[in-house]
Amino acid sequence: MNTYPVRPALESESTQIKGLINLVGINPTGLDWKRFIVVVNEKGQVIACGQIKPHGEDIRELASIAVNPEYRGQGLARVVIEMLLHENPRPLYLMCVSHNGPMYEKFGFQVIADKAMPRYFARIKKLFKLSDVFRRSGQELLVMKLE
């Protein structure tokens, strides 16, 4: 297993971060390079990333966890998540499709009920359900919280 540098993102990596987010097909909104942790390969290419996205003063979301498919299976997402969790106070929220829930449970995140979630997450979950009528993915959007 290779060991790659993990560090705060540089402004010059903003385009690479957006490209990686698009490559893996996750939510491309709210991408601010200043909030990102990145993993870079020997060529200086961003191969994994993640951020803590603020939603108001006291609501923060673990978001944009992405690993280039060519580098999956090397523990890079774990490294990014652990660094972000170490550097940020609780509570933290996240949204993921149901098949990813067990991965986040390993870090202590727990699914929360609709009535317990902040308005932002409740709205996104409703939009996801509506869009799934057309997509028919069979996946549920989970909102999880780490105390």
Q: What share of the residues does DSSP label as strand, in percent?
A: 25-35%
Low-confidence segments, ≥5 residues, pLDDT <50?
Answer: none
Number of domains: 2
Order of adjacent strands in the largest pleated sheet: 1-2-3-4
What number is the mean pLDDT? 93
First-residue to last-residue Cα separation:
32 Å
Quote the CATH topology of the largest domain: Aminopeptidase
Oligomer: single chain
- From the 3D coordinates, which CATH architecture of the largest domain would you assign? 3-Layer(aba) Sandwich
Structural class: alpha+beta
- What is the string of helix and strand elements? EHEEEHEHEHE
Overall 3D shape: globular
Q: Classify the helix fraction into a percent range.
A: 25-40%
Looking at CATH, the homologous superfamily of the largest domain is Gcn5-related N-acetyltransferase (GNAT)
The first-level CATH class of the largest domain is given as Alpha Beta
Q: Count of DSSP E strands?
A: 7
Major sheet characteristics: 4 strands, antiparallel
Q: Round the Cα radius of gyration to an integer and report it.
A: 15 Å
Give the helix tally. 4
